[in-house]
């Protein structure tokens, strides 16, 4: 790895939330091991134990961080079970976390160099609990790694990583059934559909039906859309979303995570504000 | 600017919330450009797209930060439209954000040296989206600025900034109609009335009526007030607020943001705990 | 204190929440005094003015931070009253905050070296408000301390600290009545019962009754427990909690903070997954 360890921030992604001291304790442990560690919060409001949510946030965020960054991703419903703790070294990044799928999509963005099974307890806290491996294992390993310990020191190399598959759009006659992947802070409705997957529909005209509402507008920015009418656009990560200009689409359409959305071709180009 | 760039923290104010990775990605982008950047979170829970809320928080916070600080304020309902992206250099600070009013009150606290229209795309991310200029423009510019790039490098100087006017108290016979500016974490009800504007009422006796409740107590601290009875005091930023000792005034009075409050003179000095 | 001041992070614990700029302003003040200060957020979602909650979080977190850390704990319902502002120097840490009990349990974890009454206003902000001593007193003192000022400079030594007693389990015939101390992000129900206090019940068989539901399962990890059935386990801080595997125990059992839980001995060992 050509990057000096000084430029390796530890990027934290968890479902620990903000009402407890879990995130603070994790940081205390890291600083106790590596007092000069630089830590950055990616997100701590992953839906509790929702591996897919964590995997998605890690996946879309990874490449905005400096090469050499150490991601410590703790969404860990299997803590205390036999699921493995791993460190994945890719061409550009390090990923530390439970081997339950949360690291999979992000790991696939680069070439994987090696996967280390974290077994060397000298790099853990002296007491390892059955409930908080962020504090006891993942944080300490990330801290030692940021301090310059070689990945190979943390345990034996293993050959595979637990995969995670995001739900794909389901083909139906003349279209597909999508799933609401998440609702963001602004009430925008994130879909499991990439810009590329949407292109054929955008080109030929489409209708998106959600909760008995038909959406046919397609704009390239919130600003270009008319007020109050739900429309489709590309979000900042390259996925399609349903939005309402200066409004909250999810509240307006009574949509929640995992709801289905039916996308069909219309054979007639949509109003798109001259996209 | 006499301050060495090392002492210039980047202070982040957004409406991105904490449930998504937006803030984390913004920080990743900044660190990718300037690995030694120091970042401080001012607040990320500005009400979605509420320029006034963001402008107020920036305005009351500015002077508590070190001279030379770079404020990156992203409350940006017009993202993707033709609204300008700007950098304002004042005597003491740098303000980076959309030119939609959010920077206006804070910019007015110092003498403005120059306003730069951010046009030099070499300082942006290579791909600029239509939805996330915090990541693509404002974060990168703040990072380059913190790394020592001269403000003039980011684009041409322009002569004016979009103003923002907070709603002023409306005079009525014998008093004024106020507006609830915001409800804080503790349920304190923030009013659009400064200590100075309130002084004449405090001196001569006043009544504040909100949701059919008359408030006449005026104390200089929560501790000095009686339990359970709503009273008026000065908040930590110099504005008047309605509070309940050890309680939540907004819940108790069923008050929400933008509600009206009628302030009238009574001609009789209020109970004020010997203020 | 043998630790160089450079390795002294300032650890922030408050009830300021995230919707306001209070935490950001506190950090701005600290950086204005000590531009190289390292700050870590322990938690800012202490329940408003809940000294016991703050005291508990500080108590269980303290020892995960580096020796020499400066804890700035601001849960301060008595701000503006005559309650003292103090700095406690223990063998390993510094604690700065109001002398209302919030520092007590944490201070008792080490030997107390000295307690300083914060009176030297040259180390405060020039204007001290009656509502925000985090900004005006505690933050500034923590910043000066992290910059190397000797604790004795902040005021005279005093001999005692305001104590705080967590509610203890109440003995009844054949058992005890517990109290729900808090509900965490995952919905786990935290009890005022330590692992040690629980041991005799675990050994001989027990029943925990909460809201008419009897809980008899006892597991050493979420992973070892069966789905959907509430069970008892030890949390990451050494206290007993009621949990539901991959679920939200508090919602399922309709339990909230301060609810009673009755623990009785059964005289028959429980299902415990071979603990």
From TrEMBL, chains A, B, C:
UniProt entry keywords in alphabetical sequence: S-adenosyl-L-methionine
One Pfam family of this chain: SAM_HAT_N
Cited SUPFAM superfamilies: Bacterial fluorinating enzyme, C-terminal domain, Bacterial fluorinating enzyme, N-terminal domain
InterPro entries: SAM_HAT_C, SAM_HAT_N, SAM_OH_AdoTrfase, SAM_OH_AdoTrfase_C_sf, SAM_OH_AdoTrfase_N_sf
Domain S-adenosyl-l-methionine hydroxide adenosyltransferase C-terminal: 179-261
Domain S-adenosyl-l-methionine hydroxide adenosyltransferase N-terminal per the UniProt entry, residue ranges: 10-154
Family, as annotated: Belongs to the SAM hydrolase / SAM-dependent halogenase family.
Official protein name in the record: Adenosyl-chloride synthase
């Amino acid at each position: 790895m050509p990057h000096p360890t000084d430029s390796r921030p530890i990027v934290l992604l968890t479902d620990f939330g903000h009402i407890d001291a879990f995130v603070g304790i994790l940081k205390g442990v890291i600083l106790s091991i590596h007092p000069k560690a630089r830590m950055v919060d990616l997100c701590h409001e992953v839906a509790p134990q929702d591996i897919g949510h964590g995997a998605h946030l890690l996946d879309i965020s990874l490449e905005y961080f400096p090469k050499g960054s150490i991601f410590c991703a703790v969404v860990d419903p299997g803590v205390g079970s036999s699921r493995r703790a791993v460190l994945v070294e890719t061409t550009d990044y390090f990923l530390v976390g439970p081997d339950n799928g949360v690291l999979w999509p992000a790991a696939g963005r680069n070439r994987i160099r090696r996967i280390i099974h974290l077994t060397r307890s000298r790099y853990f806290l002296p007491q390892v609990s059955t409930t908080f491996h962020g504090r006891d294992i993942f944080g300490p390993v990330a801290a030692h790694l940021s301090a310059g310990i070689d990945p190979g020191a943390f345990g034996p190399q293993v050959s595979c990583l637990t995969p995670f598959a995001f739900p794909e759009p389901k083909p139906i006659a003349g279209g597909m059934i999508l799933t609401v992947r998440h609702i963001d802070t602004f009430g925008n409705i994130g879909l499991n559909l990439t810009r590329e997957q949407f292109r054929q529909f955008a080109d030929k005209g489409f209708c998106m039906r959600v909760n008995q509402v038909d959406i046919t507008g397609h704009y390239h920015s919130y600003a270009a859309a008319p007020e109050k009418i739900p429309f489709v656009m590309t979000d900042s990560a390259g996925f399609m979303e349903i939005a309402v200009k200066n409004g909250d689409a999810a509240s307006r359409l009574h949509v929640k995570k995992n709801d289905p959305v039916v996308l069909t071709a219309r054979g007639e180009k949509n109003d798109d504000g001259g996209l």
